Amino acid sequence: MNRPQYVIAPSILSANFAKLGEEVANVIASGADWIHFDVMDNHYVPNLTIGPLVCEAIRPCTTAPIDVHLMVKPVDRIIPDFVKGGANIITFHPEASHHIDRSLSLIREGGCQAGLVFNPATPLDHMDYVMDKLDVILLMSVNPGFGGQKFIPGTLAKAKQARAKLDAYEQQTGRRIRLEIDGGVNVGNIAEIARAGVDAFVAGSAVYGAGKDSDAHRYDSIIAALRQQLKDI
Questions:
Q1: Is 13 left (phi over 0), alpha (psi -120 to 50) or beta?
Q2: I want to staple 85 with a disulfide (CB 3.0 to 4.6 A). Which of 5, 53, 56, 74 is the partner?
Q3: What is the pLDDT of residue 211?
Q4: Of the listed 38, 41, 135, 199, which one is catalytic?
């Protein structure tokens, strides 16, 4: 079974918020594929970040897909705001929805790709009855809430389990669902993560942290290094 092109999705949670439009444009110009947009509500997770108005503000800065990860509860009320704000992909945690199928439908009816996010301790069973409405599965390899955390090694086994489910579904239907990972991804572990079946990688501090020493605030070298590790998978 052929693997699709790997996706690098820098998280703007680690970007310089005072120069967010510039940070978004530069990271895409440096070879990133998606912009990962972390939304935290200080309710579902113990942090407060950015909302749909910021998504709308950065939309003109890039034509790249904006990958919105909702760490909010409940989710249905705010999904249409991100659709309107220019999101391309919207994912949420099953624990944050009163009706997972309905929340996924709300995203897809808005013209966005939809997905579920699984915390380290959340079982994968939630995906089993909604595969027809999934475009992406996002595995958290840290406990969500803050950037800069270390990768939880047990996520590799979970990624293999998820990939097996997604491959079986693709064999039955011909439709491929992406497997994304978020948390502690860096040059040292991205190849091992890819070998577990992941094909989209969120990297926040690994990318934006590496670019902060550059006068041009460009991220060419770190994104190239990440891709180099994936070259022979």
A1: alpha
A2: 56
A3: 62
A4: 38
Closest listed residue to residue 120, CA positions, set 154, 168, 76, 163: 154
* Residue 220 is a catalytic residue: no
pLDDT 10s digits, 164-186: 999 999 999 999 999 999 999 99
Question: Looking at 67, 135, 182, 199, which residue is catalytic?
Answer: 182
Give me the number of domains the chain comprises.
Answer: 1
CATH of the domain at 57: 3.20.20.70
| Per-residue pLDDT reduced to its tens digit, 99-140 | 999 999 999 999 999 999 999 999 999 999 999 999 999 999
128 is known as an active-site residue: no
Domain with 201, as residue range(s), is: 7-230
In a domain, 2, yes or no: no
